[in-house]
Write a structure and sequence with these properties.
Immunoglobulin-like; 694 residues; 5% helix; 6 domains; five-stranded antiparallel beta sheet; mainly beta
C-alpha cells in the first residue's frame, strides 16, 4: 500500500514538472552579441566589454562562458587559479565567486558566475566587463577576431561580431592652419600622440599626407619645420606626403605628444575650392594612416557679378540674337557688405544697374562690374550681335494668282536689310544689285506654278513671299461649216457658221468683229459682203488666257443676180429645142402628146430647174421632189395623185419615164409651180411664164 502511494506521488511530481516546463518562456537564443577591446593593439592586455541579449533567463548563481580564439593568451589553464572576481563585472556588479577557465589549445575560455542575488530575465541586455588586470592578451598578429558566448540557460555557442585588432597607431591627430582662405599659402600645425608601440628615435620618420586638393611644393627645407621645437634631420615631398626624419638626439616615447609646425614660407597652398579638408599621420613605427580633424577652407573675400541673359544663347545664325536680349546683372559677395553694380554699353557713360537691360539692334559690348566697401571686381564684358528685324521683301511682278499663256516668266522685286542677306527663289540663290533689286527667270509648267521667294539676313531672320502663277497654253480648235472656199453667192448677206472648243475663255471674230458663241460652242454670223467679186473672210478663235488662236481664211465670190420680172420657157411638141428667156436650150427628150390622155408631157427636171427649183429623185419609192422657194411638189411615177405643199392633187396623166427622163403633164407642173401656160395650136408651141417676185 505504501509503495502504491509512493508511485502516485512520483507520477504527480513528474506531471507537475512537465507542466511547469510547458509554461516556461520559449528560449530565443542569444542575440546581438558584440565585443570591443581597448587597446585594440596586438600583444597588449586588453579591457574587454562584451554585450548580448539573453534568449533565456539566467538565474542568480548561473554562469556565462566567454570563449576566445587560440590567438588570444589567457593567464592559466586550471580552474579558479589566476583570476580574481574584482577584475570582472556583470551588469556593473562583481561576481560572487572568482571566475574559472582554461588556456588550452582550442579551449580558451573564462567562466563567470553571475551574482547570486542577480536574476537576468529573458530579453535583457547583459554587459560583461573584463579589466586589463585579468591579463587576457590580444593576438600577436593583426586581424579580425570574434568571441563566442554561452550561458547556463543556453549551452550553444553564439558568435559575436568580428573586431579588428591591429598594429599600434598614432592617436588624437589634430590639424590647424594659419590661413583658412582658398589658394593661400598657409602655416600648418599638426599634433598627435604616439601609440603604445610608437616610440621614435633617430632615423625614424613622420609622414603627413595632405588632402589631394592641397598644393605642395617640390621641396620644403627642414628650416621651415619644427618637431617638438626641433628641426628635422631631413624632409622630402613625395606626391602629397611630407616625409620628415626625426631630429638627431630627439627621443619621443610611446604614448607621447608630438607637435609638428610648418612655416607659411614652406609654401603649402590651400585648396582652390572652399570646403572641409584634412590630413593623415603615420610614422615609421606606426605606419597606419590616421586621419585628423578637418579644417574649413573658406572663399576669399570677393565681389563678383553673374550675368543672366535671356535667351541664354544667341538664337539666330552666326552668333546673332534674333530675339532682343534681356540682361540682368546679379552681384554676389561673401563680405556681408552692400554691393552696387555698374555698367555701360560701348562708349556710353557708366550707369548704376537697377532694372533689366534691353540690348538694342546692332553690335554692342556690355561692360560691367560690382563693388562693396572692401572689394571691387575687375570689369567684365559681354558681346552682343543683335538683329531682330526681318528683311524687307517687296514683290513687284508677277502678281499673285496671275494666269498667263507665256511659258517664260521673270520674277522681279526688291529686298533690303541692315545686314548682309541671302535671297532664294525656288531654292536657287539670287544676288540682288546694289540697290536691292533682283530679277530671276523661271520656266513655267502647265497648270499652277508655285514661286517661293525667301530673304534671309545674317541673323537668320526670314521674310517670305509665295506667288501662284498659272500657265494656260490652251489653243482653241475651229471648224467652219459655211461658207465653203470659193463659194459663189448672189446675195451680199451670207451666213458664217462654225463650232469651237473649248467654249469658255474663247473669243470668235469674223473679219475682226466679235461673234456670239452658243453654249455648245457653235456660232452663226450674218456677214455683209462688201465687194462684188472676190471677198476674203477671216475667222479667228482666240483663247483669252493663253493668247493662242486658231484661224481660217475663206474666199467667197459675190455675184449679184440681175432681177427679172418673169421667166419664160418656150417649147414645141416633137422638138428638142427650147428657149428660156430667149436663150436656146437643148432637151434630152422632146415634148409629146400622149395618145391616150391627149395631154402634153414635158421633161420635169428641165422645167423645174429652168424656174430655179431643185429636183431630188428617190429611186426606192420612184419619187420626185421639187422645191421652189417655199413650195414643194412630190410626184410618184405611175401615180396620178401628187402632193403639192402637203395637199393631194389629181393629175390628168400620171408621170411616166421616157428615155430615162421623167415626163409630166405640162399644165400641171407649170401651174403647180405658179406659172401660166399658153398653147398655140397652129405651131404646136407651148409658152410657160413664171412671174418673179421682188
Amino acid at each position: 500500500m505504501l509503495r502504491f502511494k509512493e508511485k502516485i506521488i512520483a507520477v504527480l511530481i513528474i506531471t507537475m514538472l512537465f507542466l511547469s516546463l510547458a509554461i516556461l518562456p520559449k528560449a530565443l537564443g542569444i542575440t546581438n552579441a558584440t565585443y570591443e577591446v581597448s587597446p585594440d593593439v596586438i600583444g597588449f592586455y586588453g579591457n574587454f566589454t562584451i554585450r548580448f541579449t539573453a534568449g533565456s533567463a539566467i538565474p542568480g548563481g548561473g554562469w556565462i562562458k566567454i570563449s576566445f580564439p587560440n590567438s588570444f593568451e589567457l593567464p592559466c589553464n586550471c580552474g579558479g587559479v589566476g583570476w580574481n572576481k574584482t577584475d570582472f563585472l556583470v551588469n556593473g556588479v562583481m561576481p560572487t565567486y572568482n571566475p574559472d577557465g582554461n588556456n588550452g589549445t582550442n579551449l580558451k575560455y573564462v567562466n563567470i558566475t553571475t551574482p547570486t542575488n542577480m536574476n537576468i530575465s529573458q530579453g535583457s541586455v547583459v554587459v560583461i566587463q573584463i579589466k586589463e588586470t585579468a591579463r587576457i592578451k590580444n593576438p600577436s598578429d593583426p586581424g579580425t577576431y570574434a568571441l563566442k558566448i554561452s550561458t547556463s540557460s543556453e549551452y550553444s555557442d553564439y558568435t559575436t561580431n568580428l573586431y579588428e585588432i591591429s598594429y599600434s597607431s598614432v592617436q588624437n591627430v589634430s590639424l590647424a592652419i594659419l590661413k583658412n582662405t582658398i589658394a593661400s599659402a598657409t602655416g600648418v600645425v599638426v599634433g598627435f600622440n604616439t601609440g603604445l608601440l610608437g616610440d621614435l628615435s633617430e632615423d625614424d620618420y613622420i609622414n603627413l599626407k595632405f588632402d589631394n586638393n592641397f598644393t605642395l611644393p617640390n621641396y620644403i627645407s627642414p628650416d621651415r619645420i619644427k618637431i617638438n621645437g626641433y628641426k628635422p634631420f631631413d624632409s622630402r615631398i613625395q606626391g602629397k606626403v611630407l616625409k620628415m626624419t626625426t631630429p638627431k638626439g630627439l627621443k619621443i616615447a610611446s604614448s607621447s605628444q608630438v607637435v609638428v609646425e610648418i612655416d607659411e614660407k614652406a609654401n603649402i597652398v590651400n585648396p582652390v575650392t572652399p570646403g572641409a579638408y584634412g590630413i593623415t599621420v603615420s610614422t615609421s613605427k606606426e605606419p597606419k594612416d590616421i586621419p585628423s580633424n578637418t579644417v574649413e577652407i573658406k572663399d576669399r573675400p570677393f565681389v563678383k557679378t553673374d550675368i543672366l541673359i535671356t535667351p541664354d544663347l544667341p538664337d539666330g545664325a552666326n552668333g546673332y540674337y534674333k530675339t532682343q536680349p534681356i540682361v540682368i546683372l546679379l552681384p554676389q559677395t561673401n563680405t556681408g557688405e552692400a554691393v552696387q553694380t555698374f555698367y555701360h554699353f560701348d562708349s556710353d557713360p557708366e550707369t548704376l544697374f537697377t532694372v533689366p537691360l534691353y540690348v538694342h539692334e546692332g553690335v554692342h559690348t556690355l561692360y560691367y562690374y560690382s563693388r562693396s566697401s572692401s572689394a571691387t571686381e575687375e570689369q567684365k564684358s559681354a558681346d552682343f550681335n543683335v538683329d531682330i528685324s526681318p528683311p524687307q521683301l517687296n514683290m513687284k511682278s508677277p502678281a499673285n494668282n496671275t494666269i498667263t499663256g507665256e511659258q517664260f516668266c521673270t520674277v522681279q522685286g526688291a529686298v533690303s536689310d541692315n545686314s548682309k542677306l541671302t535671297l532664294i527663289v525656288n531654292g536657287s540663290g539670287v544676288e540682288p544689285d546694289v540697290n536691292g533689286n533682283f530679277s530671276y527667270s523661271i520656266t513655267l509648267s502647265e497648270g499652277d506654278n508655285v514661286i517661293d521667294v525667301k530673304a534671309v539676313d545674317i541673323a537668320g531672320n526670314t521674310s517670305e513671299s509665295r506667288i501662284i502663277l498659272t500657265l494656260n497654253t490652251t489653243t482653241p480648235t475651229l471648224m467652219v461649216s459655211s461658207p465653203s472656199n470659193w463659194q459663189v453667192f448672189n446675195d451680199s448677206n451670207i451666213p458664217v457658221n462654225g463650232i469651237i472648243t473649248p467654249v469658255t475663255d474663247v473669243t470668235v471674230t469674223v473679219n475682226g468683229l466679235n461673234v456670239v458663241v452658243n453654249s455648245d460652242g457653235s456660232f452663226e454670223y450674218a456677214l455683209q459682203l462688201q465687194n462684188e467679186g472676190i471677198n476674203a473672210i477671216n475667222i479667228v478663235a482666240k483663247h483669252n488666257i493663253s493668247g493662242r488662236e486658231a484661224s481660217k481664211s475663206i474666199i467667197v465670190v459675190y455675184k449679184p443676180v440681175i432681177l427679172k420680172k418673169q421667166i419664160t420657157i418656150v417649147l414645141k411638141v416633137g422638138s428638142k429645142e427650147a428657149f428660156v428667156d430667149s436663150e436656146k436650150k437643148l432637151l434630152d427628150v422632146a415634148p409629146y402628146i400622149d395618145p391616150v390622155s391627149n395631154r402634153t408631157l414635158v421633161p420635169l427636171r428641165f422645167i423645174s430647174e429652168a424656174f430655179g427649183a431643185t429636183v431630188d429623185w428617190v429611186p426606192l419609192q420612184r419619187t420626185v421632189r421639187i422645191n421652189l422657194n417655199s413650195k414643194q411638189i412630190v410626184l410618184q411615177i405611175g401615180n396620178e395623185q401628187a402632193l403639192v405643199d402637203g395637199a393631194f392633187q389629181k393629175l390628168d396623166q400620171p408621170p411616166v419615164i421616157k428615155d430615162g427622163r421623167t415626163m409630166v403633164p405640162i399644165r400641171f407642173i407649170s401651174e403647180a409651180l405658179g406659172a401660166t401656160v399658153d398653147w398655140n395650136n397652129l405651131t404646136n408651141t407651148i409658152t410657160i411664164t413664171l412671174p418673179i417676185s421682188g
